[in-house]
Specification:
Elements lengths: L1 H28 L13 H10 L6 H15 L12 H36 L4 H15 L2 H15 L14 H27 L2 H8 L4 H30 L2 H6 L5 H11 L2 H29 L7
């Protein structure tokens, strides 16, 4: 296990470096820069600002200096727009995104597993057909469209849920908008895996021995059907934490996602790089944890 974790950690570091390099050079290839604005900046002021952020150096040198600062000095830089420390900005906004993302992940996992089991146990019956209909709908409906519909119906038409207030936040609608699509995917995976498990010999043997249906479903079938679900859930949690930017923007939630969108709009190079690297680290850590959880669910799996 230790050897495997060390190997995956080195691979994760290499992956993050590749992502950071792609982001860095793509970001600089786009026309414009952080200091472009409607008001022209004097040439001497621009030169001083570019020198401060190493923008006067070749791109390769800029990238090496930036990565060196993070790896050796834990220096994430400061924003090119407002001068705030990047790491402080990330950690201060992460709490809001984590609360929203983890809540949405929990909702999608719980309801996805439950609906998947119900659909598998009632195959081709009315409950299964209704679940398949809503799963298809949520899969086809982008989160930003669903979030806008929720905001329009429950906040403006019915007025049963107040519009977002930073002093009295209500996470119900953002969580629903963010959890709908992952829940639909987990439902489909669970149903497919459960149907496959029900066709296995060990399930028929347990039923022939008179094992109660509850234990057949939850102790034997569901446990063995969790492997594909876990494969999806690990990256899904990281994606929800990092991919909530559109939903955060719709509901004006001041999380990390909305900050990332603002950084792209403002061409804030240091904030874009810092956020991208941080989100990439979250993703590779989630994948590593997923592999480790495999061994807990199915002891037959050995990590080498």
């Amino acid at each position: 296990m230790g050897k495997y974790v060390a190997k995956r950690t080195l691979l994760a570091l290499f992956t993050v470096l590749i992502i950071s390099a792609i982001t860095f050079f793509t970001m600089h290839a786009i026309p414009g820069d952080p200091f472009s604005s409607e008001k022209e900046i004097p040439a001497d002021v621009r030169a001083e600002m570019e020198a401060r952020f190493n923008l006067d150096k070749p791109l390769g040198v800029q990238y090496v200096l930036y990565i060196k600062g993070i790896l050796l000095e834990n220096e994430w830089g400061i924003s090119m727009k407002d001068g705030r420390d990047i790491w402080t900005t990330i950690t201060s906004r992460l709490g809001v995104s984590a609360k929203l993302g983890l809540s949405a992940a929990a909702v999608s996992i719980v309801f996805g597993l439950a609906l998947g089991c119900i659909a598998a146990l009632n195959r081709n019956k009315l409950p299964d057909r209704l679940i398949v209909f809503f799963v298809t709908l949520f899969n086809a409906l982008p989160s930003f469209v669903f979030g806008t519909l929720l905001l329009l119906v429950f906040c403006l038409w019915l007025k049963v849920i107040p519009v977002w207030d930073p002093h009295h936040p209500n996470y119900i609608l953002p969580i629903i908008a963010l959890a709908a699509s992952p829940m639909a995917q987990i439902t489909r995976l669970t149903k497919t895996s459960m149907l496959d498990a029900f066709s296995q010999d060990y399930i028929r043997t347990a039923q022939a021995k008179g094992v109660k249906q509850f234990f057949v479903v939850f102790k034997h079938a569901l446990r063995n059907a969790l492997i594909p679900v876990i494969t999806y859930v690990g990256p899904m949690i990281a994606y929800i934490l990092t991919g909530s930017m559109v939903v955060e923007s719709i509901f004006t939630i001041g999380g990390l996602g909305s900050q990332f969108v603002a950084a792209i709009t403002n061409r804030d190079y240091t904030l874009i790089m810092g956020t991208t690297i941080f989100l990439a680290i979250l993703m590779v850590v989630a994948n590593l944890i997923t592999d480790i959880v495999y061994t807990l669910v199915d002891p037959r799996i050995h990590l080498e």
